[in-house]
Amino acid sequence: MRITFLGTGSAMPTGDRVQAGILVQDDGRTLLIDCGAGVLHRLQQSGVGYENVSTILLTHHHLDHVADVVPLMKARWLAGEEHLEIVGPQGTKAMVDDLLSVYEYMQDKLELQVREIVPGEFSVAGFDVSAYETRHSLPCLAYRFGDLFTFSGDSEAFAGLANFAEGTAILAHDCSFPDDVDVSNHPTPESLGRELAGREIGRVYLTHLYPHTDGRHEEMLESLGAHYDGDVRFADDLLTVSID
Q: Annotated active-site positions, please?
């Protein structure tokens, strides 16, 4: 399995980080998780391209996770592609319908399939996936791909999500702010370290990074490492990780 971090930024992207998007590839299967602003461009830079992404799996419906959904639809239509599947939590169909009511000229341009899921097990783009509800300001799902990869989506750090991720080779976890930012709905390094303490995880990548984290990576890793002694790194746009 190959994991490519297309966008590791947030609702306040920086020059180096666009909004949320992760590409999962394995044995000819391709799945895009989230599609924030800038992800369409990153797809081209990754060498995969929008022509090869026919399924989007959304964690939730905040703008920085869905802003490039309609641009992806249009790019695929212009490239002569005919299909797109959009899968996400409850409310995904209403969101897509609302977007197409604004961009009416995109209606019926693609064979569009929209599917809503709830916590539990399901299949998408040939992958068997488990979903777990996170703690965020909108309904949001974390996703786990067997023992290989888990993505937290947006969430506070809490024991249930840490349990959900335990035993996975790679965990990509929201770590939006350093410790001195008073925030809810997202974790800080200390809170994340406390919840991951004692968990068996191959490697953790921190993502969904606000500009507040710039220049503070070392201090954030030290804070997290005071509680969790595993391998923790910062994700960057276009970083690709292979998992055996």
A: 64
